[in-house]
Design goal:
The chain is of the alpha/beta class. The protein has eight helices and seven strands, in the order αβαβαββαβααβααβ. The chain has a seven-stranded mixed beta sheet with strand order 3-2-1-4-5-7-6, sandwiched between helices. The termini are far apart.
């Protein structure tokens, strides 16, 4: 099974729960134009598509973009692009989302700035990402594990780090949700395709009682 297939399989299993959460967090009219930055296999784009007019899903990995394009609803356009440097019309989206992406980008401050640049005044931005503990040692241990599990991980940010990025772009926090996600370690390693020596190393670095803490932030532009 390819990495894109693994992502799509997990995405399908979580689709109903994600749609339900988005209904709670994002009141929508139905005529919005939405942007999904770092779309992966299309989780956010597909979940929000029935509730908006159209969605543009941007993913830099061509394999993931191709998988998303294969499964996309009619009102979702999937394009290959860099979320840190978007070649789209500024202020042309009513809703912009970035789900579980910031800890995979080298310059999260650029991605948040791009979200703000793409969103029209009065529009909405949704950022969701795994959170690092406030304690520096615990944060170091979490990041060491996540990087060993998945080499594409750059840095898991803390709640304070994310809020600083929002403030730097004059984004107003409208609502938030902190979710604790229990994770089966072996399945989590499988999702990243972590095998052999790397798997043993990642397993040995897993924090005791590992669970993911994910922050969901709804922001006003």
């Amino acid at each position: 099974m390819t990495r894109a297939d693994r992502r799509a399989e997990v995405q399908a299993a979580r689709a109903e729960a994600l749609a339900s959460l988005l209904e709670e967090l994002l009141p929508l009219r139905g005529d919005e134009r939405a942007l999904d930055v770092g779309a992966g296999a299309g989780a956010f784009a597909f979940a929000v598509a029935p509730r908006v007019r159209e969605v543009v899903a941007v993913e830099r990995d061509e394999e993931l973009a191709a998988r998303a394009r294969r499964d996309a609803p009619q009102n979702v356009e999937v394009v290959v692009g860099d979320g840190e440097h978007l070649s789209l019309e500024p202020f042309s989206f009513d809703l912009c989302g970035c789900l579980r992406v910031l800890h995979h980008t080298h310059r999260p401050e650029l991605m948040v700035a791009e979200l703000a640049r793409m969103t029209r005044p009065g529009g909405t931005i949704l950022v969701a990402d795994q959170l690092a503990p406030v304690d520096p040692l615990a944060g170091f241990e979490l990041n060491r594990f996540e990087k060993a599990r998945d080499a594409s991980t750059t840095r898991v940010l803390s709640d304070g780090d994310l809020r600083a990025l929002f403030d730097a772009n004059s984004l107003v926090l409208r609502r938030e949700r902190i979710v604790h996600e229990s994770r089966d370690l072996e399945s989590y390693l499988d999702l990243a395709g972590c095998e052999g020596f790397e798997r043993e190393r990642a397993r040995s670095l897993a924090p005791t009682g590992y669970e993911a803490v994910v922050g969901w932030y709804v922001l006003g532009r």
